[in-house]
Design a protein that fits this description.
The complex is a heterodimer of chains A (582) and B (353). Chain A contains 21 helices and 22 strands. Chain A is an alpha/beta fold and 582 residues long. Chain A starts with a strand and ends in a 7-residue tail after the last helix. In chain B, strands 1-3-2 form a 3-stranded antiparallel beta sheet. In chain B, a hairpin with a 6-residue loop joins strand 4 and strand 5. Chain B is globular and about 80 Å long. Classes of the chains: A alpha/beta (582), B mainly alpha (353).
Chain lengths: 582, 353
């Protein structure tokens, strides 16, 4: 096991007209042959920039890379940063290859999948067209694609996300590289698919004796895959070492925070720990530890199970707030030919359940299972084909436009993407106060403004943010704005549609705490839609598991998690990457 | 992409052609009927009423408009019904006591002005227009795509800015002005260098022998003039699309594979901008096939645009109608070809339809 990659004092910065921004700040690490290092960090920590710097895939005009990246093979050591563009091309794809996060967009849509892989073989190994094709098909078999011959001639849009990622893997390993860089390869995939891809990567890595740099934000994956781990925060490696050591005894407060803020599957914190519980940041960007620690032995921080049971018992004595009965929704996809034939897809297939006042119902399922469609149907943003929706004793489907508008005051929604759900040209004060004006909640404009400022403070923002525009905020802050907007009409029922999925774990924890806090204050009922069973389990009283338009299981959260009744739920739970030791 | 798809598109095309035929002939026949002038255009001002009536009868102008429209449609149709005594070329399928059913080429009537068959007039003019339009678009496409790629490659450099500047100028330049300018400058002032004529058609007719010679020399200046605007549009379109595509994730994948820039540009980028390019090119080509009136007029180029304008000036309705219908057919055909091309270059299109 010799040294393969030695990165010394790597810094990468981007410059535009006004200023220079340091994305990677003097990091050093090394990697032996056959070893896997995981680089973990949240968005903006510089982990992807690090990998792109190694491959030199950043725009040369706008970025500046300094330091040394020493790459050794067959006794030769080359500094990748000193190579001319022509020279680095001989390494890309042959010695070092890369898998990206978005399988949907990482393949050229107009070229056949097989050709995109064989292209590499012909370029680097000088294979003939025919030989490259044979090798490609063999590779497709290796990455366990069904019907490799057929897939060779398929186009990317004809394949699923997981299959596309397998093609990316086949492409990456085609020339037997000594180093594979995987940049969040499973983030965009469903958890069950993620599990398969991770298994495949591990298998291939062992078989080919490859080294791997695995970039991720998910600590759970790390413990299953990597030998070493480096935690990045704001462009710096704050802590690095063996996975076992770091997981069992994290030193840096940021690492501690990161490990703690992912909802624990075994116990339920009263409120989720966040990064800020562990470290304080000063104005200059320096940080210090708060010295706090969260231990699952500490009973004062953990929700008491008997208390929870008592609360739930009270909850279900009440009349349900919302009841849906036999909801069906089909979408038809127009077929080929004369436009007469069409395929019907059952997005929601005979779904019934109730939500009680003050309850949080978690709706969990993989992409395409119909959970978001169901959420929209409940809010009547989509009309179901059949079924009934009863809210507070009134049948929503019979309500006219005017009555429904009044109803909307009570029912609000928070969407997934905090970037696109705010109008970019509206000041956030206006965005929040607009619904108040529409529903005439307060008598005067001034009263609305005051209420808005109050709301901003409630969700953890400042009154001076009233006049700011959405682009001035981070993702987490925007989600707070969206929450404030939902609260502005004093609703009693909120649908959270994947509202924390686009956020970093530490921010996710803050938002969940906020939602939890607001629920305590106002007694909201939530439907919490998410693909992340861990988060749903933490946050919900009951969980409904959705699969192919049907509810396969519904029950008390802990019970569903610990003794799942359906096969599918078990599969989902199995697929969650687990932290080995905390 | 399958047979039923092509059939469907053809059916749509047919519907468009039919609606153009009926609408147009209705409008024009209404004009002719209300405005007696058209007949005098044919006969001269001093014709007596009897001759006028005879001519009206010969051209069915004494009939109600809807009947005229049907006569016209019947003439145009491939399968037609005529009274038994008819002097028209075609295959007689069967004859009943009063009617003759026949299969023939569409018949577009005769020019009011020259009494020549409209079909003949158009088929004489069409090659000129097609050659001019196709040459211009090929020139514009090649040079435009090339300039666009060069500009994208050297984004924000002097070259890039110059190309954008020239392309903006080219787009803003009106074609009648460009035609005059180019004809005068390159055909007259710089004639000793370029050796190109200021005007002329695709065929040069020898006045003594009446023989026709192909004259490619005459083509260069009008094609160049006609190509300037599409060239500018295509250059900008190519540049912007190449720059956009180069930001895409799959281009990063291609780079990570170690592909050289040339391969990335030709194999991975250009094919992805084919669709917007085809849209732009076919649009311009269609426009040019409809006759580049000014350019044909100024360069004295015998083409459909020229006969259309002349037909309008002289109220020669059959010629105008025939030209418009021909142009419609060309447009429809072009669109079917374009739809087909979309599916060829972009596999994602093949799913729809």
């Amino acid at each position: 096991m010799g040294l393969l990659l030695d990165i010394q004092h790597l810094s990468t910065s981007f410059k535009n007209e006004e200023r220079e921004f340091v994305a990677v700040d003097d990091i050093s690490f090394s990697l032996n042959q056959g070893e896997t290092i995981a680089i973990v960090g949240e968005s903006g920590s510089g982990k992807s920039v690090t990998s792109l710097s190694i491959m030199r895939l950043l725009n040369e005009k706008s970025s500046r890379i300094s330091g040394n990246i020493l790459f050794s093979r067959n006794g030769h050591t080359t500094d990748l940063l000193k190579l001319p563009e022509r020279g680095i091309r001989r390494f890309r794809g042959k010695e070092i290859s890369m898998i990206f996060q978005e399988p949907m967009t990482s393949l050229n849509p107009v070229l056949k999948c097989g050709e995109q892989v064989s292209e590499s073989l012909r370029l680097h190994l000088g294979m003939s067209r025919q030989k490259a094709k044979e090798k490609t098909i063999a590779l497709f078999e290796k990455v366990k694609l069904p019907r490799p011959e057929h897939i060779y001639h398929s186009y990317p849009h004809q394949l699923s996300g997981g299959q596309k990622q397998r093609i990316m893997i086949a492409m990456a390993i085609s020339c037997n590289p000594s180093l594979l860089i995987a940049d969040e390869p499973t983030t965009a995939l469903d958890v069950t698919v993620q599990k398969n891809i991770l298994e495949l990567l591990k298998e291939i890595q062992e078989e080919y004796k490859m080294s791997m740099i695995f970039i991720t934000h998910d600590l759970g994956i790390v413990s299953e895959l990597a030998h070493q781990v480096a935690i990045m925060y704001k462009g710096k490696i704050v802590e690095a070492g063996k996975v076992k050591d770091i997981f069992s005894a994290p030193q840096h407060p940021y690492t501690k925070g990161l490990l703690a803020c992912k909802p624990n599957l075994e116990v339920r914190w009263k409120s989720l720990p966040t990064i800020h519980d562990f470290m304080k940041e000063d104005e200059k960007g320096g940080f210090s530890s708060t010295g706090r620690s969260f231990s699952i032995q500490d009973k004062s921080l953990i929700e008491d199970t008997t208390e929870r049971e008592k609360r739930l018992e009270d909850l279900y004595k009440k009349e349900p707030l919302l009841t849906i009965k036999n909801i069906h929704k089909t979408f038809s996809i127009r077929g080929r030919g004369w436009g007469l034939s069409s395929t019907k897809i059952h997005a929601v297939d005979d779904v019934s359940f109730s939500v009680y006042p003050g309850e949080t119902l978690g709706l969990v399922g993989e992409s395409g299972c119909g959970k978001s469609t169901l959420g929209k149907i409940i809010l009547r943003l989509l009309e179901p084909n059949s079924g009934e929706i009863e809210y507070g004793g009134r049948n929503l489907r019979n309500l006219g436009t005017k009555d429904m508008r009044l109803m909307r005051k009570k029912m609000q929604v928070i969407f997934q993407d905090p970037y696109s759900s705010l109008n970019p040209i509206k000041r956030i004060g206006e965005a929040i106060s607009e619904p108040m004006m529409v529903h005439k909640i307060y008598p005067s404009k001034n009263a609305c403004k005051n209420a808005t400022i109050e709301l901003l403070e409630k969700v953890g923002l400042k009154p001076e943010h009233y006049h700011c525009y959405p682009h001035e905020f981070s993702g987490g802050q925007r989600q707070r704005i969206v929450i404030a907007r939902a609260l502005s009409v004093q609703p009693e029922f909120i649908v959270c549609d994947e509202c924390v999925s686009a956020l970093d774990v530490s921010v996710q924890a803050q938002i969940i705490n906020l939602l939890q806090e607001l629920k305590k204050q106002h007694g909201f009922s939530y439907i919490f839609i998410s693909h992340d069973l861990g988060v749903v389990k933490y946050f919900s009283d009951r969980i409904a598991v959705m699969h192919q338009g049907k509810i396969v299981e519904i029950g008390e959260a802990d019970q569903v998690y610990h003794s799942p009744a359906s096969e599918y739920t078990r599969l989902l739970i199995d697929a969650i990457p687990k932290l080995v030791a905390v | 992409m399958n047979l039923s798809y092509i059939l469907k598109k053809s059916l749509y095309g047919l519907i468009i052609i039919l609606s153009v035929v009926f609408t147009l002939s209705f409008i024009f026949f209404s004009f002719i009927n209300t405005d007696g002038k058209a007949v005098y255009e044919m006969t001269g001002q001093n014709t007596d009423q009897k001759t006028v009536d005879e001519i009206k009868k010969a051209y069915h102008l004494d009939q109600p408009v809807w009947k005229q429209v049907l006569y016209y449609a019947n003439d145009l149709s491939v399968i037609s019904v005529y009274p038994q005594e008819i002097n028209r070329r075609g295959i007689k399928v069967f004859t009943t006591s009063q009617k003759t059913w026949m299969i023939k080429w569409p018949y577009l009537g005769k020019s009011f002005q020259t009494d020549r068959s409209v079909g003949q007039i158009i088929s004489n003019a069409m090659p000129g227009t097609i050659v001019l339009a196709v040459t211009a678009i090929i020139f514009a496409t090649f040079i435009g795509v090339l300039l666009g790629m060069v500009a994208a490659r050297h984004q924000n450099s002097f070259i890039d800015r110059s190309i954008i500047f020239l392309a903006s100028g080219g787009m803003a330049l009106p074609s009648f002005f460009a035609a005059i300018l180019i004809s005068w400058l390159l055909g007259y002032v710089l004639h000793h260098i370029t050796g190109l004529p200021t005007w002329g058609s695709l065929y040069y007719v020898d006045e003594y022998t009446g023989e026709k010679y192909l004259s490619i020399r005459n083509l260069i200046l009008p094609a160049f003039t006609l190509g300037i605007r599409p060239l500018s549009v295509i250059a900008q379109l190519t540049r912007n699309n190449v720059l956009e595509i180069q930001q895409m994730d799959f281009i990063r994948t291609a780079k990570a594979k170690g592909l050289p820039p040339g391969k990335i540009l030709f194999r991975h980028t250009l094919i992805n901008i084919a669709n917007p390019l085809i849209t732009a090119i076919s649009g311009w080509l269609g426009g040019m096939l409809a006759g580049a009136v000014f350019v044909e007029y100024i360069f004295g180029w015998q083409g459909i645009g020229k006969i259309l304008v002349e037909g309008l000036q002289k109220l020669d309705y059959p010629v105008v109608m025939g030209s418009v219908i021909t142009i419609t057919c060309l447009f429809v055909l072009l669109n079917i070809i374009v739809d087909f091309l979309y599916a060829v270059v972009d596999p994602r299109v093949r799913l729809k339809g």
